[in-house]
Every structure is written in structure tokens, then in C-alpha cells.
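A reminder from the course coordinator: this example appears on the midterm review sheet, so study it carefully.

Given structure:
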């Protein structure tokens, strides 16, 4: 049947059509603070009432087990805050402990448990769920909260550099199931984000530096001046300079939020994900490692690999590529991962399966973001896998030296 004939047939089969179109605005603050539950600090209470409802809000708080262990007095401090500002909010139950770490995102049973607890406490759509923890805990609690009553108000309190700079400030929740990174999830903007820098002091070195990978990511493709600052202070970041880390987190968060606000595609309906530069390989490494590798470390290796490809295809100068690798290495991030050496059934590097995973996720059209000089980006839809294999060999040699 020809197109005109199809249109004529359609007109006979229906009485008309109503095209619906509407716009919904989202707004949430991202605060940068210290000791959010300290005596006299009203920020948490004020955040719950930022809409001016003037009511006593009910809150269910989840606490990352790693945070609870590192800050043994935090639960008592949280309870004291609720007593001090009892006019503004009350906890529906004592803080609930949820297992921290990447494995938290792979258990749907945890999501069901959280949903059940919310139901048992009869939280409504004007109640709050809050979570203090790393990106994985924020994901699993946020995912559960987004499903109950089609979405409860969720307040994030990220506890790692990675979560404060990236994972905890955006509008996504994801679960690692079906052998895929973030296979299940929702787009659900938080009610608010409170980045408490005091939570960072107890992080292990791996978790302290992990968030810097995301800072390098956005700097390389969006902000040359920020990249210069990161490269210049890479050793300070590795040495746990708190002031430099706070600066890096804040600027990285600002760039991420600006992209969400201005990209025109906050819910990723299109075929490109610019902020996932370096992530197709990083996500595949995480999957291959079964959650044992830190996200920041895996992404750093992915950034190095994509930067090599950009250099070999004329988009980065050799000197720019060298500066990227030096910056990553100086702050303690890897530019090569041992799983790059793993081979698939076809004899090619197994990590290259991440290209096909990305293609499927994006809807069939492969779109990879690459640096186009420092501070700029370009999107490509076809790649030469031989150059990626070459890059793996080069990065392996560099890792040896």
C-alpha cells in the first residue's frame, strides 16, 4: 500500500485525533553545607518546609551502613535535630539502616523492603523519605520512593565525593539488575539535595578520590579552565586537601546541573548522553567486576580510553592527551584497568561489548561523546574498534611504567 493510500485508510478507520501537549516544571535546591544535623542548624527543617506549607512533616530516614559505621554518633545527632525542630518535622520511625556499597543496587528485595516499610508507616505524598549515603544507597532508596504513590518527596544527603559531585544531585535512580548497569530505574527529581562536606572526612582513599573522575569528565568536555585547575591541584586532591576537594565538587555539580537545566533533554529521550563521556567502558568494567570496582576508578579508565581514541582521530593533540593522563594519574586514578585484557568469544577485548550495550540503551543509534580539544565535545556515531584495541595496548604499557 502506498503512503497516500495508507493515510486514506487511516482517515476511514478513525473519527479524529486529539494531540496532547503539556509542560511540567521541576525545581529543587542543591545545598553545600557542613554538619547539617549539628545543634542550631535549621537547614534540614527549613528544606522540608521550603514550599511554605507550615505543617509538621513526617520523615522516614535511611542511613547507609558504611556512614553509620564511620559516624557512630550520627543517629543520635539526627534524633536530637528532630527534637530541636519538632515544630517542623518528626521521624516516622528511627533511622533505618540499609547496606551500603555497589551491591545495594543489585537487590530488588531491598527495594521491596523499603516500599513495605513506607506502606506500614502510612506515609503519604506530602511525607518525606530521606537518605544519607553513597550513590548506590541514594539510588535504591530513591527508586523505592519514586514507586510508592507514584512518587514520594525524596531528600538526598550524599556522603561521598562521587555522590556529591554527580550521582546524588541529578534526577535519575538506577538498579543494576539483569546483568546491566542501571537496567531498571526512574527519572525522579529529588525534593532537595544537601551536600554535607563534613561527611567526606572519614572516606577511604578510594572513595575520597572516586568523585574526581567525574570532575575530570565534565572539565575535559565542557570547561577548559576547570580542567586546568584540576590538573594543577591533582596531587593536592590525592593528599586529601579538603578545601580543594570542596571546590572540585561544587564546580562539578554546577556543570552537571547546568547541563540538566539547559540541554533540552533532561529525561534523556534523545539518542545522546554527553555526560556519559568515558562511561560506556567504565560501566562495562563495573559489570565485569561484579560490583567490586569503584565507579570513579572504572570511569577514569574509560576516560583515558576515549581520550586516546579522540587523540588518534585528530580531536585531541598529543600534548592534551598527555595532560589528561597525567592529571588522572597524579590524583591517584587509574588510566588502565586489568579487565581491559579480558577477551570475549570473538577474541576481541571483552570491554568492547559496552559499545553494543550503549547502542541498545540509546535506542539503536550509537552515540559516543568525545573531547574535541580540552573543554569542548563532539558526538560520533561510528567507531573504529581497532583503534580502541590499540588504545588498550598503549594504556597497558603506560600503566607498567
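Designed residues:
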Amino acid at each position: 500500500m502506498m503512503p497516500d493510500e495508507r493515510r486514506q485508510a487511516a482517515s476511514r478507520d478513525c473519527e479524529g485525533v486529539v494531540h496532547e501537549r503539556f509542560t511540567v516544571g521541576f525545581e529543587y535546591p542543591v545545598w553545600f553545607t557542613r554538619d547539617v544535623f549539628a545543634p542550631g542548624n535549621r537547614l534540614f527543617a527549613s528544606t522540608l518546609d521550603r514550599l511554605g506549607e507550615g505543617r509538621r512533616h513526617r520523615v522516614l530516614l535511611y542511613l547507609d551502613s558504611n556512614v553509620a559505621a564511620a559516624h557512630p554518633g550520627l543517629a543520635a545527632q539526627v534524633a536530637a535535630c528532630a527534637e530541636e525542630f519538632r515544630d517542623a518535622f518528626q521521624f516516622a520511625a528511627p533511622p533505618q539502616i540499609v547496606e551500603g556499597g555497589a551491591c545495594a543496587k543489585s537487590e530488588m528485595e531491598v527495594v521491596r523492603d523499603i516500599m513495605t516499610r513506607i506502606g506500614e508507616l502510612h506515609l503519604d505524598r506530602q511525607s518525606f523519605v530521606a537518605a544519607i549515603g553513597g550513590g548506590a544507597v541514594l539510588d535504591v532508596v530513591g527508586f523505592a520512593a519514586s514507586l510508592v504513590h507514584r512518587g514520594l518527596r525524596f531528600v538526598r544527603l550524599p556522603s561521598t565525593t562521587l555522590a556529591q559531585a554527580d550521582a546524588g544531585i541529578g534526577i535519575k535512580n538506577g538498579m543494576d539488575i539483569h546483568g546491566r548497569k542501571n537496567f531498571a530505574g526512574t527519572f525522579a527529581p529529588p525534593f532537595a539535595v544537601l551536600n554535607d562536606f563534613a561527611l567526606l572526612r572519614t572516606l577511604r582513599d578510594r572513595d575520597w578520590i572516586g568523585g574526581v573522575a567525574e570532575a575530570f569528565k565534565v572539565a575535559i568536555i565542557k570547561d577548559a579552565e576547570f580542567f586546568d585547575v584540576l590538573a594543577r591541584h591533582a596531587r593536592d586532591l590525592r593528599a586529601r586537601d579538603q578545601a580543594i576537594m570542596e571546590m572540585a565538587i561544587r564546580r562539578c555539580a554546577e556543570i552537571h546541573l547546568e547541563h540538566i537545566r539547559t540541554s533540552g533533554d533532561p529525561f534523556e529521550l534523545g539518542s545522546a548522553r554527553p555526560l556519559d563521556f568515558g562511561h560506556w567502558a567504565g560501566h562495562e568494567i563495573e559489570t565485569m567486576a561484579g560490583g567490586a570496582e569503584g565507579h570513579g576508578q572504572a570511569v577514569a579508565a574509560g576516560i583515558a580510553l576515549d581520550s586516546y581514541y579522540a587523540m588518534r582521530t585528530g580531536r585531541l593533540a598529543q600534548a592534551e592527551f598527555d595532560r589528561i593522563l597525567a592529571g588522572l594519574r597524579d590524583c591517584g586514578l587509574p588510566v588502565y584497568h586489568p579487565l581491559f585484557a579480558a577477551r570475549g568469544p570473538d577474541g576481541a577485548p571483552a570491554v568492547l561489548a559496552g559499545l553494543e550495550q550503549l547502542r541498545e540503551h540509546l535506542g539503536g543509534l550509537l552515540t559516543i561523546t568525545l573531547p574535541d580539544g580540552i573543554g569542548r565535545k563532539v558526538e560520533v556515531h561510528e567507531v573504529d574498534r581497532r583503534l580502541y584495541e590499540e588504545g588498550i595496548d598503549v594504556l597497558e604499557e603506560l600503566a607498567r611504567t
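Residues 270-400 form a domain with the Dehydroquinate synthase-like, alpha domain fold (CATH 1.20.1090.10). The mean pLDDT is 93.
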